Amino acid sequence: xxxxxxxxxxxxxxxxxxxxxxxxxxxxxxxxxxxxxxxxxxxxxxxxxxxxxxxxxxxxxxxxxxxxxxxxxxxxxxxxxxxxxxxxxxxxxxxxxxxxxxxxxxxxxxxxxxxxxxxxxxxxxxxxxxxxxxxxxxxxxxxxxxxxxxxxxxxxxxxxxxxxxxxxxxxxxxxxxxxxxxxxxxxxxxxxxxxxxxxxxxxxxxxxxxxxxxxxxxxxxxxxxxxxxxxxxxxxxxxxxxxxxxxxxxxxxxxxxxxxxxxxxxxxxxxxxxxxxxxxxxxxxxxxxxxxxxxxxxxxxxxxxxxxxxxxxxxxxxxxxxxxxxxxxxxxxxxxxxxxxxxxxxxxxxxxxxxxxxxxxxxxxxxxxxxxxxxxxxxxxxxxxxxxxxxxxxxxxxxxxxxxxxxxxxxxxxxxxxxxxxxxxxxxxxxxxxxxxxxxxxxxxxxxxxxxxxxxxxxxxxxxxxxxxxxxxxxxxxxxxxxxxxxxxxxxxxxxxxxxxxxxxxxxxxxxxxxxxxxxxxxxxxxxxxxxxxxxxxxxxxxxxxxxxxxxxxxxxxxxxxxxxxxxxxxxxxxxxxxxxxxxxxxxxxxxxxxxxxxxxxxxxxxxxxxxxxxxxxxxxxxxxxxxxxxxxxxxxxxxxxxxxxxxxxxxxxxxxxxxxxxxxxxxxxxxxxxxxxxxxxxxxxxxxxxxxxxxxxxxxxxxxxxxxxxxxxxxxxxxxxxxxxxxxxxxxxxxxx
Amino acid sequence: xxxxxxxxxxxxxxxxxxxxxxxxxxxxxxxxxxxxxxxxxxxxxxxxxxxxxxxxxxxxxxxxxxxxxxxxxxxxxxxxxxxxxxxxxxxxxxxxxxxxxxxxxxxxxxxxxxxxxxxxxxxxxxxxxxxxxxxxxxxxxxxxxxxxxxxxxxxxxxxxxxxxxxxxxxxxxxxxxxxxxxxxxxxxxxxxxxxxxxxxxxxxxxxxxxxxxxxxxxxxxxxxxxxxxxxxxx
Lengths: 738, 234
Description:
The structure holds two protein chains of two kinds. Chain A is of the alpha+beta class. In chain A, a hairpin with a 4-residue loop joins strand 2 and strand 3 (about 85-95). Chain A has a domain at about 565-735: PurM-like C-terminal domain (Phosphoribosyl-aminoimidazole Synthetase, Chain A, domain 2). In chain A, the strands form five sheets. A seven-stranded mixed beta sheet of chain A has the order 8-10-7-11-9-12-13. Chain A has a seven-stranded mixed beta sheet with strand order 23-25-22-26-24-27-28. Chain A contains 25 helices and 28 strands. In chain A, about 35% of the residues lie in helices and about 20% in strands. Helix content of chain B is about 20%, strand content about 25%. Chain B has a nine-stranded mixed beta sheet, with helices on both faces. The longest helix of chain B has 12 residues, at about 15-25. Chain B is globular, with a radius of gyration of 16 Å. The relative contact order of chain B is 0.18. The interface of A and B includes residues 250, 337, 425, 428 and 563 of A.
């Protein structure tokens, strides 16, 4: 080991880098000496929460991750499932919460860039993007600026790379005032026998760097993402990376072109902790060593140190292990796309990470002992106490409000109001393969390029349920994803999870995490809906205030033909409106309770997984037989809100004679496992017979008719009125700043 | 009909264009890389949408100087039909095939939605299959679609039948001149959505007929454009 000029390492410095004293001592023991400055930087990011999953791993291991449809579960850049006929679907959801709060435009943009790379690095052409966003209270002074920046950043990146953004969800709650959530999901398609993995192989094989040049941006971003925010978080702006979607688009095309040759042994994107995590993970998975010569790394700035190069999170970069002698083939492709290409090292048999620059050695440490020693914690946790049931009296509709006023209020509240202002900024149509996008169906639907086969994509979570009961909330998020896929007619395949929580060192928060995982695991098992990829974002707290627990679920389903997919819009006058499933009038944690009665209490609705499965299978069966005209699952806001959305989407009203005399529980209860369907009147009897035969509860709500919701004995509520209320809130809110 | 689709770094709607052309003509169009200097013999050159060169400098400005554009201009001069859609409209305008400029949308945001257009002139192979005054629905997806030119040019465009499409309301109402209202998605001058050159052999438009050609799209209003081209150029 040469003595290169580097700052002296101390425990104090290790603490600044986010290591605990125990972790630092462990590093001393493994190396048998003081780490160099560069080594300390590398160890600190490898052992950061963000890269090591040290608080969450014990519990993530309890999720079901296998099934006949799974080609590759968690552990790779993204999950891979079988879509039949030799096609594979590759997908993942990932958070970019901390950077997006500090610099919303670039934070969100690079979040999209990162998740795209995770998917195309495995050989998939990205075909759909989604995003799940949570912001603070609308009246919080930062919220408007954050909504504006995040949405513009997602649009900037996703639109330019030419991947349609086909859906997502957006919530507002004061608990996100200091920590917003930006969870981005990408779905891609590949041939099942042409999937690329990250494990390096072949001693002496060249290690190749492609993409953008390396700069000083994002150094220690992974460490930032592993700590709570405080007043001075603004000062962390330099740790946010800057994205270039144009380079990403070229990188997608160049990588996919290279993947058509046989030149690649292994490939991985440089995400969090950049060159450090990519080189260490690739060599580590292959049980090999790796030697890098950093003089050969394409650099954007002069005078960068090995420490800076190894920890930079500059975007749009990939690390590739090539077969020997294929450098020229590969270089020609990257030259064509005008991207940097450099051989920066070789694989070795030493099991060590060796970093050289300026003729000196800056890092020489064993990979496996450091990786394997990355700490694993069994953090203490407390179960969340059960919420008291609501009193029966809440079921009575208030005497001082008309039903129209109540529905209007719910349709225009920030969580329920139309998010058109957001999704019209996303190109949802590029590629010409989009069947359904935001506002048209319960899931986004795209067909595979050049095929009629389709996939459905959804993201779901109800954070207020998770706060009240993490176990139920976790199960509900998975069940809702299952329902949203079933509602369009797609067979649910698998799940990606994006676990957003507060500080896991607090037993109450750790209890939320443990509870959510338990609920998710139960639901995934019961629904044959395994988790194939995921991401954990902890420490979402500011000055000790944690976010609502948000285990966001992204899920993918398969349609034999995208054209069979059914949207939410009423299509014809006189169709019969049917309710699938039955409710108990559960108002705990409902939007009705919060928006009309001003209360946020009670338990969230229970989830009966056997019922979810039975009802989901039944609805998919009806859609496959072509019996369903319109389909919408019942979620936020309950039955009447669901019917109102179907009416607004189609511009056709409904006569709801089946709801005569219904109370608030029936109209607005958020009981799970339910769907509203519209079928042609002459098919209604046959559909009801099928329900009876399948043991599925079904009732007639009424028929599609006119331009208003009528026939419950009360006043007519016009679609125009509901639409105005539903569409006005977000544009009005955003315009108030302009 | 033989067609070529030009691909620049950052183009992203070339697949949509290829699919629409192939569906209408039964022939796969040539994909031509921007650094090529020669074009195959074709009846139609399509410059597709996307973000050529990342929209750096100005949308379409850098692509307009790509090697292949010299050849595109030469062919256009010979009367070969050229169709520029979205970023393609920006590129051929920057290259001087059409007058005017495309500026940032009036509301400064990217916008993706289906809009209503009125077909203003059917005396071209691009629009021959429509009725004059017909209202059609095409999607738009752009951030820089705000067409502008000087007063004299706009008068000429109007007088000589060079306006191909205008944004109108869903009921087909033409707005008063200069009206920046909700159904004009970008604030374009005179509600212009697409224009011809003087000979009506070149069409540039912001909306995407290629994403409205099948039952799958839930919209077939763009199909007559491609059918018309095939009929005229085969």
